[in-house]
Amino acid sequence: MPRLKVAREVKHDKERGAAGVLVAVMMLVLIGAGALAVDTGQIYAERAQLQNAADAGALAAAQQCHKAGSCTVGQAKLWAEGLTAGNSNDGATTVDSADLSVPRQVKVVTSTLSGANGFLTKMFASALNAPPVTVRAAATASIEPIGGATAFPLAISDCQYDLSGAATTGAIQLIKYKPGMGTCTSTSGHVIPGGFGWLDHTGGPCLAATDVNDVVPTDTGANYPGACDATVTAWRNAILAGGTVEATFPVYDNAGGTGASGWFHIRGYATFKLLGWAFSGGGTPQVFHETMPYVGSTANECTGNCRGIIGQFVKYESIDSAESSSGTGPDLGSVKIRLIK
Fold first, then answer.
1. Cross-strand bridge partners of residue 144
2. Are 268 and 212 in contact (CB under 8 A)?
């Protein structure tokens, strides 16, 4: 009997030793899995921040490249760097490269700037002798001509458009309803009447929905549409408050028909910085800042029977605006910049 008791005690001691080894091994596995989970989560969080930074950098570089007319890789990279850090939570992001190899596109690649030598600092995996990690993200912004818009129902003749691709602003000018300038030939060789014209309200009150290469119906005559009072009043109030009013208008390169059958062919879209106007009917808000000293020179004054708008064409970049669509029409200075990758 005493010998049996000793044998059982020895057996129990061996079982307890095996369990201790198993627990130690399992703890190592659990710690390793936990370290991997924590560090993987950190990497994913860092990549999300880098993606935000890359998106912002690509949009900023594309906007500045278009505004300048052209840019170098070095300029694009510098413009991207101006916004990447501010769009990363830790404020520690570097721009690896800017790529302009595809026309009208800017690609920006960002990477981790935290940790030693640009590597992401690992909280636990370093205890397992895991190699360092550099996280990267890329974004591509496209510069596309506006292909369609729902906007103020006024179209400007291609004869009046004067903004070259390299200029950011055009000369101050008076665009008359009937400019009295004789014939004016479009890019297609057709004669275009008038300096501007009213469009049918196909997109809602004081709104015309148009697209590049559309033939759109015109509103009869020079009469100012009363439905636009709220919009024109808002323009007036903004200028009086010291602000700037820039409106994007369709540009037509051919016209035809008469009366209710009149039409314009839309070539593209251009943005006009408004300084003053004189629409039919007189009074407020139809007439505003139509004379000196607001219009640059006496040649731009619109008095008497004159019907016109005074201002200058400007470059304009819409950042992924829902109010316009991108298209394949000509770049008349107004473009839509959006992320495509």
1. 336
2. yes
Handedness of CA 198, 202, 206, 210 (dihedral sign): negative
Neighbours of 227 (CB within 10 A): 13
Tokens found for residue 84: 């990447």
Backbone angles phi, psi at 217, to 5 degrees: -75, 140
Which tops the pLDDT comparison, 52 or 73?
Answer: 73
Q: Which two three-digit tokens encode residue 51?
A: 């993606």
Q: How far apart are the first and last CA of the chain?
A: 81
pLDDT digits (tens, 9 = 90+) for 186-216: 666 667 778 899 999 999 999 999 999 999 9
- For residues 205 and 341, the model is more confident at 205
pLDDT digits (tens, 9 = 90+) for 81-100: 987 765 555 556 789 999 99
Bridge pairing between strands 93-99 and 105-112: antiparallel
- The domain ranges of the chain are 21-134, 147-339
For residue 119, pLDDT beyond 50: no
CA–CA gap between residue 114 and residue 296 (Å, rounded): 53
Assess contact for 157 and 303: CB atoms under 8 A.
no
Closest CA to 149 of 339, 338, 329, 285: 329
Closest CA to 317 of 67, 56, 52: 67
